[in-house]
């Protein structure tokens, strides 16, 4: 197993991993080639892939605001799930965010993703049932 920072040239394989892992995909908005490549160019260290024999089998995106780090889009293809790959990706991205000085790291998990919920609980994350997440979007594709 090898972990490496992803680049703009990895866009197609990122989308393939998301699709195979069952993550929702918005190809017109936030997941368009232009948008993902823009984000990678802004901060390549926040895009991490897990590889076996040059095949990407999992990935995670990190991001941050001025107050906390965020873990986003954690995905492992089904045939490699349950092998500790997601946990290793989370740990490496946490390390990268901590190296930047972030002492709070957060993630959001949509309903129905019990495996992700359990993974993050085991990693020490606390569920906050008293928080309501609101967004304002220019369109539903974003």
What brief labels describe this structure?
single chain, globular, alpha+beta, Aminopeptidase, 5 strands, 142 residues, five-stranded mixed β-sheet
Set down the secondary structure blueprint:
Elements: E1 2-5, H1 11-21, H2 33-42, E2 47-52, E3 55-64, E4 69-76, H3 85-99, E5 105-107, H4 114-122
Parallel strand pairs: 4-5
Antiparallel strand pairs: 1-2, 2-3, 3-4
Folded structure, characterized:
This protein has 142 residues and is of the alpha+beta class. It has one domain (2-122): Aminopeptidase. It has helices at 11-21, 33-42, 85-99, 114-122, and strands at 2-5, 47-52, 55-64, 69-76, 105-107. It has a 5-stranded mixed sheet. A hairpin with a 2-residue loop joins strand 2 (47-52) and strand 3 (55-64). The longest helix has 15 residues, at 85-99. The termini are far apart. The mean pLDDT is 94.
């Amino acid at each position: 197993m090898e972990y490496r920072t992803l680049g703009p040239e990895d866009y197609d394989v990122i989308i393939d991993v998301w699709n195979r892992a069952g993550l929702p995909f918005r190809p017109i908005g936030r997941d368009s080639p232009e948008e993902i490549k823009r984000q990678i160019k802004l901060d390549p260290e926040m895009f991490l892939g897990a590889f076996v024999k040059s095949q990407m089998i999992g990935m995670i995106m990190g991001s941050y605001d001025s107050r906390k780090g965020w873990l986003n889009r954690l995905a492992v293809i089904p045939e490699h799930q349950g092998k500790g790959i997601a946990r290793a990706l989370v740990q490496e991205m946490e390390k990268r965010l901590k190296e930047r000085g972030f002492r709070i790291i957060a993630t959001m998990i949509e309903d129905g993703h019990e495996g992700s919920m359990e993974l993050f609980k085991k990693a020490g994350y606390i569920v906050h049932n008293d928080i309501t997440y609101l967004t304002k979007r220019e369109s539903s594709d974003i």
